[in-house]
Here is the input.
Amino acid sequence: MNGTCQSCGMPLAATGERGTEHDGTTSAYYCRYCYRDGAFAEPDATIEVMAARGGEMMSGMFEIPSERARGFVLQQLRPLLRWSGRLVPSCGSCGMPLERPDDAGTEADGTPSSRYCIHCYRGGAFVEPDLTREEMIEQYAPLLAAELGMPLERATAMVTAFTAALPRWR
Ligand SMILES: [Zn+2]
Ligand SMILES: [Zn+2]
Here is the structure.
């Protein structure tokens, strides 16, 4: 089952957060706010509408200027199944979507990885094998704070929540 809602990007940690199909079974792809009884709750919603709504929420929660928050959410939504029409795997170490063949890391035998990106994983091993989750947060939070124009302490909270959902750090 997929780890994030493929419509809004919300992490689907618990089964109760998943939407339902026509026959009452839980959805493999969508959350219960987006998808119920085999259909989207808002079938006419566009990615722009979803990004504006998500951006508003992010802006309030993490003190990001609203225009940047909206742009950031739009970028997060674009690879999701509902908007791209395909299931794009994301890196289990940094969360980057593996949209293009060049984005994929490599296994020991040189084949492309479906689990990790090229920045994190090459030749079947992590580029930084000793990196801890704390170090990853320390490295990434200032970059995110600068990119989104948010306070460092809010960026740290955001990266902490985000990395909790990634297989490498679980
Ligand atoms: Zn959703
Ligand atoms: Zn990565």
User: Anything to note?
Assistant: The chain has a mean pLDDT of 94. Residues 91-125 form one domain. The pocket of zinc ion (ligand 2) is lined by residues 91, 93-94, 96, 116-117, 119-120 (CB under 6 Å).
